[in-house]
Amino acid sequence: MKAFEKEYWQTNYSDLKTIDGIGNVKDHSRYVSAYFNLEGFEAESIIDLGFGMGRLLKEFKRVLKPRRVAGIEPSEYIFKKLKLPGAHLRQMDLLSWAQDPKEKWIYDLAILNSVLQYISNKDLKIILPILARRSRYLYLTVPTEIEYQRQKSELSFKDDWAIIRSQKEYLKLLRPHFTFISSRMLESKHYYSSRNTPFQDLLFRF
Ligand SMILES: C[S@@+](CC[C@H](N)C(=O)[O-])C[C@H]1O[C@@H](n2cnc3c(N)ncnc32)[C@H](O)[C@@H]1O
Q1: What's the CA-to-centroid distance between 75 and ligand 1, angstroms?
Q2: d(CA 100, CA 131)
């Protein structure tokens, strides 16, 4: 079995409207757009890391209207399906992207929706500090062990590809590099602290 090729998509993506980032793609873009408007922040460049079918990337491009749009996706099967004129799309995984010295761009917003559960701790320890240098803000979703337990008991669904981690484990990996500033939105500690953040509601920083 090749990782994240046809079998993954047929197994995990059999009912598209129920999938986070697909069925509710407009809710994601409205949320981020409203939050950025409220705080007066403009994302002029975005990258989707592990874009899959590319629905979030397309929708964020449409709503945020950034000048630069980029994405990476390791699966050849799904990579070939996305057509997004003007976007810089590369078929590669997150570790290769992090270790690519040719990638010089610093993005206002990186999207990382439901991808971290497929990456080992060893690789995440290399990737996350680099990600915090290459992106100012990170739109992050990742299921923790509690969501996986619920999926199993309520939906009889089990993701055979995923590494199951607790919230505590994710926080330990993420917190040295990012501050949580809102639901799903993280801010790079490499660029910002409470002294220089453009996001003004300083109570909500964890
Ligand atoms: C649950 S899907 C999410 C796809 C997309 N982000 C979305 O929200 O619709 C997981 C994605 O992670 C990708 N992926 C798996 N391992 C990866 C890695 N090491 N680096 C980057 N992407 C990876 C898969 O190919 C797949 O596209």
Answers
A1: 8
A2: 12
